[in-house]
């Protein structure tokens, strides 16, 4: 039996021709966030026509098949994301290309 998660759209960042959408399970635990209940590969770039342009799993190739994005924000024309694994990426929001990477812990 496959476990189902109740996810909401937690963030939408508008870059003009592309929307960045981050999914999250805000009801995962009554006293805070249960990371084991969070969706993986939970960041998408979607065109104004509704087409999925890329998913985070297609952009980060570091031996990981699952990425959990815990925060995202716009920094001028770049997308900045933070993952559960304490890595911050700066990305091109249109292509998903990684521009920079730092460790946050």
What are the defining features of this structure?
single chain, about 100 residues, mainly beta, Thrombin, subunit H, 4-stranded antiparallel β-sheet, about 0% helix
Outline of this structure?
With 105 residues, this protein is mainly β.
- The chain-level structural class is mainly beta
* The number of domains: 1
Number of helices: 0
**Tell me, what is the CATH class?**
Mainly Beta
What is the CATH topology? Thrombin, subunit H
Low-confidence stretches: none
**Rg over alpha carbons:** 14 Å
Q: Main sheet: which strands, in order across?
A: 1-2-3-4
N- to C-terminal distance: 36 Å
Spell the H/E element sequence. EEEEEEEE
How is the main sheet built?
A: 4 strands, antiparallel
Overall description:
The structure is a single chain. 16% of the residues are buried. Strand 1 and strand 2 form a beta hairpin. With 105 residues, this protein is mainly β. It is globular. Strands 1-2-3-4 form a four-stranded antiparallel beta sheet, with no helix packed on it. The chain has a four-stranded antiparallel beta sheet with strand order 5-6-7-8, with no helix packed on it. The chain is built from no helices and eight strands. The mean pLDDT is 87. It has a single domain, classed as Thrombin, subunit H (Beta Barrel), CATH 2.40.10.480.
